[in-house]
Amino acid sequence: MHFLVRLYTTGSLFFSILFLCVAFLVIFDIFDEINEFCGVMENDLKKFKFYASGASRTMDGIDKRLLFGGAVSV
Asked: Cβ(65)–Cβ(74) under 8 Å?
């Protein structure tokens, strides 16, 4: 009887520690994925800023152009 109590206690402790380790690994993986996602988003925002500034310069240039030989100004 005493042996069974010791066996159940040891098994319970082992699986509790195993569960905590798995939980910490899952939490670490989630934070790692969030960090990776933030890095990808920062790169995408840099690309967007580059294209948006180019588009802005193009639109500014269109405002200064004269159409139809100067008959129509935009």
From this structure: yes
